Amino acid sequence: MNEKTFVVPNISCGHCALAIKNELGDQPGIDVVDIDSATKQVTVRWDDPASWDGIVESLKEIGYPPAA
Q1: For the purposes of burial, counting CB atoms within 10 Å of the CB of 13, is it exposed (0-12), middle (13-18) or buried (19 or more)?
Q2: Helix (H) or strand (E) holding 59
Q3: 3-state secondary structure string across 10-42
Q4: % of the chain exceeding 90 in pLDDT
Q5: Burial level of 11, CB count in 10 A (0-12/13-18/19+)?
Q6: Angle between the 14-25 and 52-61 helix axes, to the nearest 10 degrees?
Q7: What does pTM read for this prediction?
């Protein structure tokens, strides 16, 4: 199991958090998507077949890329 906490600067409200949760939560292998809108921190826990690169690409596609 892999886990990563990162900042997504584009999060500005609960709707943003919901969009991220819906996008990532539907992907096979992703177990947990926890978001704190106030700090813009996202924690994702995943296993195969999900990957960090796939998570980043999904977030970029919906306009919420992780901070570099």
Answers
A1: exposed
A2: helix 52-61
A3: CCCCHHHHHHHHHHHHCCCCEEEEEEECCCCEE
A4: 97
A5: buried
A6: 130
A7: 0.92
